[in-house]
Write a structure and sequence with these properties.
By secondary structure, the protein is an alpha/beta fold. The chain has helices at residues 17-29, 50-57, 63-74, 91-100, 141-153, 171-191, and strands at 2-8, 33-39, 77-81, 107-109, 114-116, 122-128, 157-163.
C-alpha cells in the first residue's frame, strides 16, 4: 500500500472548520493509502533562529527534524490541512516546514538550480478562510507558499480544497460550504 503523509495543522483541533473538511477526505484516502499523521499541535516547535541555522549550516540537524524530513521525502502523497492565519498559514506549520526542508534530504542542487528529492507525486492543501479572500488572490499567501515548497521538493501535482468568508456567513451557509468542500475533496481523493 502506498504511503500518504497527513500534516494536521488545525490549531483549534475539533473546533476547526478546516479539520471538519479534512477528516472525511483523509478517511477516504485511507482506503488506498497507509496514512501517517503528524499533528502540529503535538510538537513543541521553536522558531528557527540563529543558533539552529548555524548548526544546520555546519551539517548538524536534529534527529527529530531529520526524521520528519525523511517522512516527507518518502511519502508518495502529502496532504496538509491548515487554516488561513494572518494571510498565510499558522507560524508553527511554517516552522515545521523550515525544519523539514533539508538540503540533501527533501531537495538538492547542481551547478545551476535546486531540484526536489521527494517521491510524492501529489500534494493537497485543505483550508478555510474567515475572510472573503479566494485562492489565487494576492492577499492569500498560503497557497502560493505551499505550491512553491512543493516545487522545491519536486512534487508536481498540487490540489487545493478551500472555502472562505466563514467569519461572515450565517451558520447554515457555513454548513453548506463545508459539505460542498467535503464533496469536492472526496472527488479529488478518487484520483489523488
Amino acid at each position: 500500500m502506498k504511503k500518504l503523509l497527513y500534516i494536521d495543522s488545525c490549531i483549534r483541533n475539533e473546533l476547526s472548520r478546516t479539520k471538519r473538511i479534512a477528516t472525511p477526505i483523509i478517511e477516504k484516502l485511507k482506503e488506498r493509502y497507509e496514512v501517517e499523521t503528524i499533528t502540529i499541535n503535538d510538537l513543541d516547535l521553536a522558531p528557527v533562529q540563529y543558533e539552529e541555522n548555524r548548526r544546520r549550516a555546519g551539517g548538524t540537524v536534529s534527529e527529530e527534524a531529520l526524521c520528519w524530513a525523511n517522512k516527507i521525502k518518502n511519502a508518495e502523497r502529502i496532504v496538509v490541512a491548515a487554516p488561513f492565519w494572518d494571510m498565510s498559514i499558522p507560524a508553527a506549520l511554517k516552522t515545521f516546514f523550515e525544519l523539514c526542508s533539508l538540503f540533501g534530504v527533501t531537495f538538492d542542487s547542481d551547478d545551476k538550480t535546486c531540484f526536489g528529492l521527494c517521491k510524492a507525486e501529489n500534494f493537497m492543501f485543505i483550508t478555510t478562510r474567515g475572510m472573503k479572500i479566494e485562492t489565487g488572490d494576492p492577499l492569500e499567501q498560503a497557497t502560493s507558499y505551499l505550491k512553491a515548497l512543493a516545487w522545491l521538493w519536486g512534487i508536481k501535482g498540487f490540489e487545493v480544497v478551500a472555502r472562505c468568508n466563514f467569519d461572515y456567513l450565517p451558520q447554515e451557509e457555513i454548513e453548506e460550504e463545508i459539505a460542498s468542500a467535503i464533496k469536492e475533496g472526496l472527488e479529488l481523493a478518487e484520483k489523488f
